[in-house]
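B., you asked whether I could sanity-check this one before it goes into the benchmark set. Here's the sequence:
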Amino acid sequence: MNPAVQQELDLPHDTEWCQRWRERTPTWRRRSDGGFDSSVYRVIQVAEAPAKRFVIKHHYSASWPAVRLAYALQRVDQPPGPGEPEGGRLVGVVALGIPMNSAVLDVFPDLRHFRESLELSRLVLLDECESNAESWTCARVFAAAAKIGLRGIVAHADPVARTRMTPDGPVLISPGHIGHVYGHAQGFAYLGRTRARRLTVLPDATVLSDRAASKLRRNEPGHKGVENRMRALGAPARRADEPGAAYLPRALEAIGATTIDHGGNHKYARTIGPGRTRVRLAGTRYPVPAKADT
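And here's what the prediction gave me:
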């Protein structure tokens, strides 16, 4: 990030700022800048393939979760790019998916997991999208999803800043979020924090999950993918006779991975669609947080 921009932002997780992406590099816009013209945008449901390509190309995690419904934000005044859906250029994706732990959806005790309730897994808009585009997009995504039976959505916001190490020094990738678009713009209930945990953060600002680490330690199916991920970040090759449990700490040390004590993500939930006020939402509601913290 340009140092002058970083200095101006100071604390970009403040509710005045909204985040945008392009090729895994973040930018920020002031919400007060406005400028969003809904007449040149539309939201449509799309196949997984183009949505996945877009998210992997632009989101800092370069990953695609288990997604059930994918929606595209299109510029209808511009032609679609190669491999993009017809009707306009793809400038944003919202993915509704299956959380890693199905208990996340227990906040909707009367809804069927994965059919009537899902997690908002990805929200990625290009840097050209004007301020307030995300709230307009989310409102239309929720309306479209409600028409095919979805009644409950859970969303999370990570309050901990993430930094990517580059040859030119550290670059702020994620400043820490409070979930302003959920709690303020979309009427989600704030349900507090998820459980605190200790995370292994890689130099590209992504997290090595406990499941991925276990695959490598135990030589389980998928361990080669984790090895390749370590190698891509500069780790040495694994020796032919080296147990995974020995290689993992050696690789993490070589690439400069760090561990952090994470206090838990902010958790939000809301009901959507006809009769949404009659759908039970379990859990204690709290005031929406005013600022991010660790």
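One thing to flag: The two ends are 22 Å apart (CA to CA). Otherwise nothing jumped out at me.
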